[in-house]
Write a structure and sequence with these properties.
Elements lengths: L1 H6 L7 E7 L2 E5 L18 E3 L5 E3 L8 H5 L5 E12 L2 E15 L10 H5 L10 H4 L21
Antiparallel strand pairs: 1-2, 3-4, 5-6
């Protein structure tokens, strides 16, 4: 998680929860849904698609949390970030403050590989093709032939 935070302004995007298959935890990342509910209703248009169809959250996110509530997979979170804000007592002066922004794991698309995979000291984190890696767990068993349910009459 430190590698993730180091790659993303000190905030981890990795959610170490998810589906478990056998001894494997499948950490969640953005699924870039075909019809993404997270993009519906953003008041400032900060969540959008890139040309490659991946979903990104721009820096102008106002932290309203609508996308977080709309994501059916729980892959988005709100995190506080340090920002300069106008001083209420003296509006022309800026002071340190915080602002919430939505974030989500995008598998470090801006890097060659996910930071968590690259930095894992135990070689326990891997990026895999799910159908290939887990294929044996989902193999279908041959079905037993059943008798005909059709009635015959003469």
């Amino acid at each position: 998680m430190k590698a993730c935070a180091d790659a993303h302004d000190g905030v981890t995007r990795l959610v170490r929860e998810g589906l478990r298959f056998d001894k494997y935890l499948v950490a969640t990342s953005c699924r870039s849904c075909r019809d993404p509910l997270c993009m519906v209703g953003c008041p400032v248009g900060a969540i959008r698609r890139r040309g490659s169809m991946e979903i990104i959250i721009e820096d102008w996110c106002v932290g309203c949390g609508l996308c977080v509530r709309n994501c059916p997979y729980g892959n988005l979170n709100l995190h506080p970030f340090a920002v300069d804000v106008p001083d209420p007592a003296q509006p022309t002066r800026m002071i340190a403050g915080t602002k919430n922004k939505a974030t989500g794991c995008d598998l470090c698309m801006e890097h060659d590989e996910p930071s968590c995979v690259y930095a894992c000291p135990h070689d326990a984190a891997h990026r895999v093709e799910p159908l290939t890696f887990f294929g044996g767990m989902f193999a279908t068993k041959p079905s037993k032939p059943t008798g005909s349910t059709e009635a015959t009459s003469k």
